[in-house]
Amino acid sequence: MENGYVILGIVALLFLSMYGYAYASVAFEKIQEKKALKLELKKEQLRLEDKAIKQKVRDEKMSQLNKRSEEIRLELEKLEQKKTQKEVKRLKIS
Asked: Is 39 exposed, middle or buried (CB count within 10 Å of its CB: 0-12, 13-18, 19+)?
């Protein structure tokens, strides 16, 4: 009878090890999926941060361009006014 318990224990151990092996592969797969998802989310976050930084740089450059354009426009207006003043003086002298 004692050998029966040993055999029963061995069979139970066999079934437990089979269940453990099957469950371990499923659990390992889930862990890998979670790691892959975390990695993907981190990559996405880094991409969005990089995109925001690049947009900020573009906005700064655009602001500088607009500022310079406004300065040029004002300078051209001043030159145009000086030109008209010279013409008026020339006409008054003539």
From this structure: exposed
DSSP 8-state assignment for residue 94: -
CA–CA distance, 52 with 54 (Å, rounded to integer):
5
Amino acid symbol at 76: L
The string of pLDDT tens digits covering residues 35-79 is 999 999 999 999 999 999 999 999 999 999 999 999 999 999 999
How far separated are the first and last CA of the chain, in Å rounded?
A: 138
Q: What angle do CA 55, 57, 61 make, to 5 degrees?
A: 115
Q: What is the pLDDT of residues 2-30, one digit of tens each?
A: 788 899 999 999 999 999 888 888 899 99
What are the C-alpha distances in Å from 84 to residues 70, 77, 79, 89, 92?
21, 11, 9, 9, 12
State the alpha helices, DSSP H only, in the chain. 2-93
